[in-house]
Amino acid sequence: MGFLYSQLFKRLPYPEGSFAGKTVVVTGSNIGLGKEAARHYARLGASNIILAVRNLEKGQAAKEDIESTTGIATDVIQVWHVDMGSYASVEKFAARVSSDLDRVDIFHANAGLARTKFNMVQKDEEMITVNVVCTILLFALVLPKLKESAAKYKIRPIFSITSSVVHEHTTLPQKTAAEGQLLATISDKAFAEKHWDEQYPISKLLEVFFVRQFADEHPAPTFPITLNCINPGLCHSELGRDVPGWGFIVIKAILARSTEVGSRTLVHAGSAGIDTHGQYLSDCQIGQPGPFVLSAEGKKAQGRVYKEILEKLEGIISGVTGSFSA
Questions:
Q1: What are phi and psi of 130, to 5 degrees?
Q2: pLDDT tens, 312-324?
Q3: Number of Cβ atoms within 10 Å of the Cβ of 120
Q4: Which terms does the record give in the GO molecular function aspect (predicted)?
């Protein structure tokens, strides 16, 4: 009932205010929520907007569309390449953020995907690689730039991960895995296919786990960056384009928010205060994650997930998690 009330009756505030002088980075921004969030930032005067996309041609089309609808100068938006399914691409993109940008005020890790079939990418199932591992790798790699921006400009940058209410649709069946084998079990083909309806929710659950555990270990008063995650709700976008059947199409037709309305949740998270550090945001306010996250069993799984993610990141780039220290 909470989901239905949110989708049908909640009215999300239209973004207002000024982002003059600010630099905003949005991954997955050639379409959907990322593109509409970038349009809001452009409309509200952001000085520099980076559309981080896998397809540069589509990114350029998004740039031109935003420019034509907002009337901004052609030098405000830049289109940069990043493939969130590639460790090397994420590292290259983060290096460019560090070298080419004077400051970063807001970073939206919005790129994500939902698949209907199992596929290994790098060393994990594809949704785990893109939605979780590479997203958090990107966070670790751009943190030094965010900290530099915080110190130089006396600001508190925000890194926001686009998550989902569907994290409530799983209690993590892999939680019984042996110590140190949780992520490996999540990406085990046989196990994943047995619980395939939960695979996308699991990827979103892991995002929520990471954000909460990171804030537990790096509380807001001692850390200069705000890390939060959001639930944009069910929106009209291309995220579920691979989902078969008419059922999902009908549900979206009845319940889904417009892409623009959904994007308001991103802009809210990007302009939120220190009180959102480690928080799950929904309907443009601090919300409560699902019951499993708040349970004792969930808390234990959260700690295990966090530990294994850090170990995985270190296996990709030695020393990368050193940026997590205050």
A1: -75, -50
A2: 999 999 999 999 9
A3: 13
A4: oxidoreductase activity
Q: Which of 6, 29, 47, 163 is catalytic?
A: 163
185 within 8 A of 191, measured Cβ to Cβ: yes
Q: How far is CA 109 from CA 90, 92, 136, 161, 316, in A?
A: 12, 16, 9, 5, 19
263: annotated active-site residue: no
Backbone φ and ψ of 20, nearest 5°? -55, 135
Q: How far apart are CA 282 and CA 272, in angstroms?
A: 12
For 90-115, write each residue's pLDDT tens digit: 999 999 999 999 999 999 999 999 99
Q: Which residues contact 71 (CB under 8 A, 6 or more apart)?
A: none
SS3 124: strand
pLDDT tens column, 238-248:
665 555 555 55
Q: Does the active-site annotation cover 154? A: no
Active site residue 280: no
CB atoms within 10 A of CB 38: 29
98 and 25 Cβ atoms separated by less than 8 Å: no
- How do beta strands 120-121 and 124-125 pair? antiparallel
Q: Considering the entire predicted model, what is its pTM?
A: 0.93
pLDDT at 104: 98
